[in-house]
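so i finally got all the pieces together for this one. its two components total, 776 residues if u count the protein bits. some of the lines might not be protein, just check the labels. i wanna see the whole assembly predicted at once instead of chain by chain like last time, that was a mess tbh
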Amino acid sequence: MSLPCGIRNYNYAQDMAIFRTKTHWGMLIVFLVLLFTVPPLTFNHLWLNTVNTIGITLIATLGLNILVGYCGQLSIGHAGFIAVGAYTSAILTNRFDMPFLVGLIAAGVVAGCVGIIFGLPSVRVKGFYLAITTIAAQFIIIWVINHWGLTGGFEGISVPYASIGGLVFDSDVKQFYLVMVIVLMAVFVAKNLMRTKVGRAFIAIRDNDLAAEVMGINVNYYKLLAFFIGCFFAGIAGALLAHTTYYLNAEQFSFTDSILYIGMIIIGGLGTTIGPMLGVTLVKIIQKVLLPIYMVPWLENSITSLPAGFATGLAPIVFGLIIVLFLILEPRGLAHRWNLFKAAYRLWPFSY
Amino acid sequence: MKNKKLLIINSIICVALLVVALPFLSACGGGEDTAGKTLKVGIMTPTTGIAAEKGVPLRDANMDCIAYINTELGGINGYQIEAINLDSQYKADQAVTNINQFMDQGCLFFTTSASAEMSWVQEIANRAGFPGLVCYSSPSNYHPPQHIYGQMPDYGDDWTAFAQYYLDNIWQGTGKPKMALMLLNNSTGAGAKNAAMAMADAMGIEIIAMEEHAATTISEMESLTRVSAMNPDVIYISSTPQPTSIIIKEAKNIGLYPNVTIGVCHAAMTKALVDLGGADIIEGVYGVFPTIVSWDEDAPAVVKMKEYAQNLHPNDVNNGDYIAAWAQSLIIAEILRKTLDAVGYDVLAKGDAESWAAIEQYGFQGLDGYDVGGLQSPVNYVAGDNRLGKSLRINRVTNGVITAITGWVEAPLIKYEDYDWFGN
């Protein structure tokens, strides 16, 4: 009996497969089974809602990662595009009684189209200059939301439960399944998009747009396509946000959030699919659980001489410090750490 | 040797199992004695995040007052109030998590500090029939009235009360006085805008301008110049202290103030306005407030409030938000007491939809002129009007101090839901 040494690929499909071995498939299945059973069965509202928030934010940051991490088009108005998706779905389902699925898809398409409009300057400018033009998107979108009658203005707009057929997503658990299914689809699309001609064009533009143009890539077309796809993801995330919070007003889409989305993909690792997953998970757990639930009460209880509100003020400082330290100590993001871990795991027990 | 190894392994497994099972064992053992003896209330405050400056004293007052009720007053008919305080972080997704936790943990009703917090969760509460009480409210929180109640008059009521006071006591001219509105671009500004749209014509006031500004504004000279060109008789500012102080300073710089009367809403009429603007600049400005503004005022509840604040949170002394939340907790206790008297503990012990309905029927809707220790106007429920406190006082900055110049002035109910433009 002869055993192959290592993994042999006999055709192109095998060579390109993401999951190449039975172990990979086994781990994927175990992961999915755990994902769809453990949180809904064991998590309380706090953790389940945190997981749902992570899922929704992940969809948005996957889009931002396509735009910034893969195509190199810096956008600092992502919360605005999420708002476009959220309000599109809210208006269609609330004011026009359209089904949730129509609202969901329309949210992606409308946000994508708005993304193209604000992406037009990318044809002429790039880098920090482009960043400034995308900041305009954030403020213009929020202004329109606050002053357009259909959006409910400053009072906001209520959003019905998401429903597909007779299934109404009216609880954390049901919403968890809805969000996770869409997250998996988004991850699948984002991962595979980068393995296509389009993805390679994005990467070529990011690395050197002049060289890409010389190679025959229609740079303007692909830049705008990156804006469309990135904002489409943001729109889908916005629609899910709307149907899980049931009420929208413009205060939910702040400029600070736009900055934070950039921070998440940098912490996770730009230009990787695993990066946004790790970055979003880390940031959201720190932001939603560790600081407010554990650190602030601990500080207030253990150091009683602190002035009122001091511990509260300390929380964002600690949060910022974590991000700064992380960027200094691991500038390539958590994705790099993950890759090192995988490499070590494959070679174990040998060191190389 | 082999047995020794086995013994060690078994011991480790036993210890591990014990550690894992400990929370479950303690939950089983400890819960039985105390279960059914507390009245759970969910209290949501923006303790962290961008509104923490207000959220911390609000949280402190809520918890201090409930501690006072539990320890010195013996709770509610002997039952302790169990306050479950959760931080909203002034974020919608966290607020949604919190309200689900409140319902999950069997809270009888919940409170929020800010109108924005309530707006994020009111849909969930209304759909579930879970009653809520909001401290600083906006008309959109309870129009149309469902299961959300306002502790005090809202930003729309501020405008109505000030406008009526202006017409009755300040306006000396003929015809309609010309009023310009300077509005913060959120629910604070929208409240005044809605009230003006609904009531200005009927009251005999001409609205000549509605200028919006951001909370982060550094100058409103442009909008004030436009307003000045229209020769207003009165300017009403519905905003927070920082932008309000900027507007008043610039109005003074261009000679608009004190030639015109300036009135401000209760979000701005605080000590912070005087500190930010400077006592000489802010002097003479009118403003409304739904609670007492001074900690030295002769109100029965002030004594205990001051004692607890000085002992437990000395930094909160003289803070207006502390007064509002202390009053909120007194109302919480009254709602619980009324319901307990009506239906008994067994119904409330369930912490389910039946309890919520009882709380709403006998607690919220049973309020009939409860005196909140003199901290705010008495609270009572009138069918179709979910504002429990309906009156506020007109104040004026005199010698750098905010001083009440009227008694409690009732703000009439405005049926916003009857107007086509409301929410559209």
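The mean pLDDT of chain B is 88.
The longest strand of chain B covers residues 38-45.
anyway lmk what u think
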